[in-house]
Amino acid sequence: MKKILTLLLITVILHSCRTTNELSTVVMVPRSTQVSKVLDDFTREESKFMDLKNCFVYFRTNKLGDEIRIGAVEKEITLMFLKETNDKLVGTFEKDGIDFLIFGKKANKYFYPRNTRMNTTYSKYNQIITKSKRESEVDIVFSIEPIVWIYKNERDSIKFVEKGRLILID
What's the confidence (pLDDT) of residue 48? Predict the structure, then answer.
């Protein structure tokens, strides 16, 4: 009887984890004030040209974790943009009404997960776009590539390198 109850409990937990993963994302928190400052600089400058509250801001690290790319893509097209990538979403966070998506295996150098999962704006968009993609296989053509800011992390100091119409995600 004890084994059956244990098995039942494990099955319920696994099912709830699967359901939670489909509907929510890991909420992340910047590890340092330096990371927060980089994000603040980006949002302050880019908000002069676009309404970042209607965008997802991408924070992506390379495989070594020594390069950071930050860019913003409108929410309406962002999931189509993500469809073309091999990058895996690590987590999300929201700051001042702006939604951030965190990518890269080394993102944990810059963010740590809060012990919560939430239905974020990204989760809601993911569900809507996934459903609409099943109903209609229409692709969106990108007329403008996002402005991407590139930083290097050298000896735990994040330094700005360049910005322009560069590759944001792989």
Answer: 94
